[in-house]
Write a structure and sequence with these properties.
Number of domains: 2
CATH topology of the largest domain: Purple Acid Phosphatase, chain A, domain 2
CATH class of the largest domain: Alpha Beta
Number of strands: 17
Order of helices and strands: EEEHEEHHEHEEHEEEEHEEEEEH
CATH superfamily of the largest domain: Metallo-dependent phosphatases
Helix content: 25-40%
Largest sheet: 7 strands, mixed
Structural class: alpha/beta
Oligomer: single chain
Distance between the termini: 82 Å
Strand content: 15-25%
Length: 378
């Protein structure tokens, strides 16, 4: 847990995995094949990019169930799910996802992670929430801290679902972040250390990366998810890279987390999971906001586009963040768990086919009703 991280030959590389949603227990041949596909993606990422750190963005396991020793069950599942990474010895850290709060076993899950040698980062006991921490990265010589990583617990669903479906990073967590950031600055002679933040549920400001779709763009657009935008459809703004497959599932109200980052001035980029289809990257007020697709094959997704994100930081410019998404299919991998159609179809095509099918059914129904009415009139 206390392993020190540093730049390697002038670079620091982070491999980020979105919601894997792997099974706690393998129960079928399908489970086994889906895990094998995920393992292929993890192995290829480790070999091709040789990261210095691997980050999990939450919801690593699904199919939560009660048992006598939840910590041990979760530890064994993590060791199985992450085996291709764990065997390399590369350090790992994580965020808690919303589903890891579902049964109230957050503390057991955090304990399970702490029992695995590769995992670094320790929950700051002064922080509200179940796992909030930061990790400082030293230069290649191991002398100076030149990069900071934040890991924030974005909680689960809101207590009052009329206000918001998903919870938010609470005010006391934001106060903890600001206080901790000031402590880091004070301990580095007043210097602000550039930082990257990781958390599960994305911030409200991601919607600033989009524009409202025009009527003729309907089939290329995505409906908003949060309450203020539910009746609107969106297209990425120019300059936003990657894929917008669903409206970001942020909290429905804005509690000021992003504004806090701007005030403190350390965060250069923030990366999120939660939305299994999205892998876009854009800039809002000089802060990079990036989404990670699912990195597994159990969650809702689009064919062979499960993905990893690579983040690379140069020692000489630690405030400049370079990042790119790599899809399963793009890496030349072949799926064993998906059928011939599932391998090729993406979520947008699938949704549009459903819409066309629904429209066709409505039209057929209308024609049928019209014929019945004509019959009775006669």
């Amino acid at each position: 847990m206390g392993k020190e991280l540093k730049f390697n030959n002038g670079k620091f590389k982070i491999m980020v995995l979105g919601d894997i949603h792997e099974r706690l227990v393998i129960e079928s041949r399908e489970d086994e094949l889906k895990q094998r596909d995920a393992h292929k993606l993890f192995e290829m990422g480790m070999k091709a990019f040789q990261p210095d750190l691997v980050v999990l963005l939450g919801d690593t396991c699904s199919e939560y169930q009660e048992c006598e020793n939840y910590t041990l069950l979760h530890k064994e599942a993590l060791e199985r799910i992450l085996k291709p990474i764990l065997k390399t010895g590369v350090p790992m850290c994580y965020c808690l996802g919303n589903h890891e709060h579902d049964l109230g076993h957050e503390k057991e899950i955090v304990e399970a992670y702490s029992m695995i040698e590769n995992f670094i980062g320790v929950n700051d006991e002064s922080a509200p929430g179940d796992f909030n921490c930061n990790i400082l990265i030293k230069d290649s010589k191991g002398e100076n801290d030149i990069l900071n990583l934040w890991f924030i617990d974005s909680n689960n669903c809101a207590e009052d679902r009329e206000i918001s479906n998903y919870d938010w990073v609470h005010k006391d967590q934001i106060e903890w972040y600001e206080k901790k950031a000031q402590e880091i600055k004070d301990s580095h002679n007043g210097k602000t250390i550039p930082a990257i933040l990781f958390q599960h549920i994305p911030v409200y400001e991601e919607y600033e990366l989009f524009r409202e779709a025009k009527p003729y763009e309907y089939f290329w657009s995505t409906p908003g998810y949060i309450k203020p935008y539910k009746d609107k459809r969106f297209i990425k703004k120019e300059g936003v890279e990657g894929y917008l497959g669903e409206g970001p599932c942020s909290p429905d109200i804005n509690m000021g987390q992003f504004e806090s980052w701007k005030k403190v001035g350390d965060i250069k980029a923030a990366f999120f999971g939660h939305d299994h289809l999205n892998d876009f990257t854009g800039v809002v007020d000089n802060i990079i906001l990036g989404q990670n697709k699912t990195s597994g094959f159990h969650a809702y997704t689009d064919g062979c586009k499960a993905a990893i994100r690579m983040i690379t930081i140069d020692e000489n410019e630690p405030d400049k963040i370079n990042t790119r998404i790599y899809h399963f299919k793009e890496l030349g991998l072949t799926s064993e768990s998906l059928g011939p159609i599932e391998k090729r179809i993406n979520d947008r095509t699938s949704m549009n086919l459903h819409k066309l099918g629904y429209a066709g059914a409505v039209l057929a129904g209308a024609v049928g009703i019209g014929a019945i009415i004509k019959h009775f009139k006669r």
